[in-house]
Amino acid sequence: MFWSSLHRMILLELIKVFGLALCALTGLILMAGIISEAMKNGLGPTQILLAIPLMLPSLLPYTVPTTTLFATCIVYGRLSADNEILALKSAGVHIIHVISPALLLGTLTSAGMLFLYLDAIPHTSFVLKSQAVSDVEETLYTMLRKDRCLKHPKLNYEIDIHGIEGRKLQDVIFKRRAPDGKSFDFIARAKQAELHVDADGKQLLIVMWQCQIVKGTTVGFLESNVWPVDIPAFLRTGTAKLRTSDMTWFELFEYEERWQDEKEKLSEAIDRHQAQLNMGKGAASFRDHIASLMNDRKLHDSYLFNVHAEWHMRAAIALGCFCFALVGCPIGIWFSKSDYLSAFITCFLPIVTVYYPVMFCAISYARAGKGPPWATIYIADFLMLLAGAHLFRRLARN
What pairs with residue 190 in β-bridges? Predict the structure, then answer.
């Protein structure tokens, strides 16, 4: 029954609408949001083009569920408007057979999202962050070309320039802040300068030629000099994965095992010190040491909470695609006499105002250790499944 020509036609229509909507929505977010923001921050066209393939997987958890909902609303709304749903019900076809292509689409998109979450999404997200800060020199030159200055509240120095010719900075003013952070205790002016990153990638070297130096009331002149300064923290390179969102599925297992072993060692140390205290043999500092160890164990617990929440969060977001398809079908059928956009908005507004807020709150609670992830993070999906079951029950009755 499922592989009849009707089901293949519905599935083909769902795939076409889904594909077109996915390309349009993803492209819109890329162009209107991410790319424009990247250009405002001084990234060049080449850097943006190289980053786009790495941005796409991270956008899919937000665009795929939405386009799944959109496709089901459009296709089933069109079928209902053409009275094909009514004709099938009159022929004795149960509604579950009619919506089975949408359920298949929801299952495939959920499985695809979960597969991407195993490796592709966290890997590309980490590579994108690493790539954005890997070429420090090029990023700094891009920022200087755009703003003609380098200023940041957390930096103890400022660089102002008049222009750039190739790699040469023209009419450069380098200022170093005083310890009070309000004034400058050192100012160097140069006709030309270049920026280089040292071999270790820890310091920025400002090479200046024909520079005048003002330090307090002292004025001097140097034909050339090199001023080493700290690289801005947001541009420092790093290869360690510190965020669970950047870890692949199997790296999360390794991360959990690491902190679980550390936690067990801390628990054993606490038990040993407490046993010494109970026998009256412990030193006076044992109580403070136990308190310190217990604080460390709480910190390890927070790391474990993050890992467990990350696992369930990825599965819950993937399951959302199936839930959206389940809800989109009956809404699309009921709104057949209205425009398709009304059906989509009717579905999407409750999702934006209820589903995602509940999901993000549940994730925050799970990461804080206020509830087991398996019982909190799936609440939003469970509500959507209940809503879909209720809608289909009413649809089957009518």
Answer: 172, 211
| Tally of domains in the chain | 2
98/25 same-domain check: yes
Q: Please tell me whether residues 100 and 16 are part of one structural domain.
A: yes
Spatial distance between the Cα atoms of 40 and 42, rounded to a whole number of angstroms: 5
CA distance to 5, 7, 74, per residue, from 2 (Å) = 9, 6, 21
CA distance to 123, 286, 386, per residue, from 283 (Å)? 49, 5, 59
pLDDT at res. 339: 63
Residue at 246: amino acid letter: D
Task: Please indicate, yes or no, whether the overall pTM of this predicted structure exceeds 0.90.
Answer: no
Print the domain residue range for 197: 147-235
| Amino acid sitting at position 68 | T
Among 201, 235, 269, give the residue marking a domain's end: 235
My answer on whether 45 and 97 are in the same domain is yes
Residue 178 within a domain:
yes
Indicate the burial class of 37 (C-beta count within 10 angstroms; 0-12, 13-18, 19 or more): exposed
Look at residues 229, 237, 173 and name the one whose alpha carbon lies nearest to residue 206.
Answer: 229
Average pLDDT, the chain: 82
- Each residue's pLDDT tens digit, 212-260: 888 766 778 888 888 888 776 656 555 556 688 888 899 899 889 988 9
**Residue 1 — pLDDT band, cuts 50, 70, 90?**
very low
> For residue 2, is pLDDT > 60?
no
